[in-house]
Amino acid sequence: MNAIALMLIGLGAFALGYLFYSRFIADKIYGLDDSRTTPAHEMEDGVDYVPTNRFILWGHHFTSVAGAAPIVGPAIAVIWGWLPAFIWVVVGTIFIAGVHDFGAIWASVRNKAQSVGSLTGALVGKRAQSIFMIVIFLLLLMVNAVFAVVIAGLFVNFPESVVPAWSAIVVALVLGQLIYRKLIGLTLLSIIGVAVLYLMIWVGQYTPVVLPDQALGLGANAQWIVLLFVYAGIASLLPVWVLLQPRDYINGLQLFVGLGLLFTAVLIASPQVVAPAFNTNIPAGTPPLIPLLFVTIACGAISGFHGLVSSGTTSKQLDRESDARFVGYFGAVGEGSLALAAIIATTAGFATLGEWEAMYTAFGAGGVNAFVEGGATIMNNGYGLPMAVGTTLLAVMAVLFAATTMDTGVRLQRYIIQEWGQIYELGWLRRNGPATILAVTACLALAFGAGGMDGTGGLIIWPLFGTTNQLLAALTLLVVTLMVVRLGRPPWFTLVPMALMLIMTLAALFYQLIQFYRAENWFLLGLDLVVLVAALAVVLEVTSTLARALKEGKTDPRPT
């Protein structure tokens, strides 16, 4: 099959989903109302609550939720064949991810920008909130610890990506001041910012940065991990307009340009998909397609982490309710487009089936390296972009996605700790400084405590990321459904996706339990049980409340 067909079908479906389905959800299910004052205006503090232009906020939201996962997940899942991955990404983005991300923003904005954990407490009860926040904290711990490992590995493997990646911070700081003080129009700033970032990619070819093999007992990989967490801790304390917003916005533009370059190369090169639609020659030890597909590809189809960003930072910056559709649903479309690019790069970026099979020798193989190498090959064949430039461009894309997610993830972890301070009336824990130190310390403790001096401890619990993440997505949809029911609107558009995710994720959790037991991996077995029991407890609590709401009918006295 020609990759052009995959690209056109996927992008066309995404466009139709945004133009029609998201409008239906906005008007008939969520009932967006610009006459309502958003928390960004009501609680404006210049730090976390800041009314923001919807294009800038979209950039923050998109790059925060994307991370490396919409690249890694599809790049691994194509081992089962390109067709299951393609269908799940397209259908998941349109009918599940867009509704989930959009709904999490809407639900949070309607409740003073509370996070999905706090929202559970307000709608269901404190017991459900406390249990839910355990799942959230574990997920954030996994995301932050592992993305640091991913970025560090890319810096070590592609030292030409270091200068472009870190220069993005300087560009963002300058842009933040210019945007906030309204010294230059947004369009001109966008053009200048993207041009500088791409110039730095070219400069990076001639200025690779390689850390020493050993320093203070740490290898190069571990040194990068420490530096990344120091940066993330500082960044999470700055007002969002200083670094987070402009960094995410300009990265979002740069990354969309990168996607445009890759898709244009597909049109020119017209590569054939060499991977099979359904792979009947899967390597030994590969888990079953069902239910593992639905937790292997999380970001790019649906991801619980998106609900944390939507209700944690995005909802605090929404200028008008109607912006939630563009920021939330179109943000999901952007991530689905990245996942589509990953599928094409990892299935059509190889010359032959044998070459593809040599990359996919085991489940978990491929990943970012397959995306970088395959995508660079397509761009080289399309318009002669040198392989070195192509690999640097795509490596920088992966780094910037992961880094912006890590920035937001540490800030969200700080919010969770502060919410615990509020629940248990610990005043010192509600302050930004102590909460941030605890958040970063927890991540470093996992990285170096479990992983030794390599700092790769996050990888130990990473096998649980997919199931924990998708459980969180199901629980978020369940909470959104409760709000929809209380407003007297049809619940099926959130309830059916929730049921699918809950069934598939619980099945995957039970499968993992069996595998951990057989491997005598008691640590992961115990952690898996904690996640499973906590999730089931939250499901029972919320389902009970939902059943009462369905019986009672509309309970919100405000206009629908």
Descriptive report:
It is a single chain. This protein has 560 residues and is an all-alpha fold. The chain has one domain (3-552): Up-down Bundle (Amino acid/polyamine transporter I). Helix content is 74%, strand content 0%. The chain contains 22 helices and no strands. The protein has helices at 3-30, 39-42, 54-66, 69-77, 82-109, 116-123, 126-157, 162-180, 186-204, 220-237, 244-269, 289-296, 304-312, 323-348, 353-359, 367-383, 387-423, 432-451, 458-461, 465-486, 492-518, 522-552. Helix 9 (186-204) packs across helix 17, helix 11 crosses helix 16 and helix 21 packs antiparallel against helix 22. It is globular, with a radius of gyration of 22 Å. It starts with a helix and ends in an 8-residue tail after the last helix. The model has no long low-confidence stretch (mean pLDDT 86).
Number of domains: 1
Low-confidence stretches: none
Structural class: mainly alpha
- What's the CATH C level? Mainly Alpha
Estimate the strand proportion: under 5%
From the 3D structure, determine the CATH topology.
Amino acid/polyamine transporter I
* Biggest beta sheet attributes: none
Helical percentage: over 70%
Number of helical segments with 4 or more residues: 22
CATH homologous superfamily - what is it?
Amino acid/polyamine transporter I
Shape descriptor: globular
Terminal CA distance reads 47 Å
Q: What is the averaged pLDDT score?
A: 86
Indicate the radius of gyration in whole angstroms: 22 Å
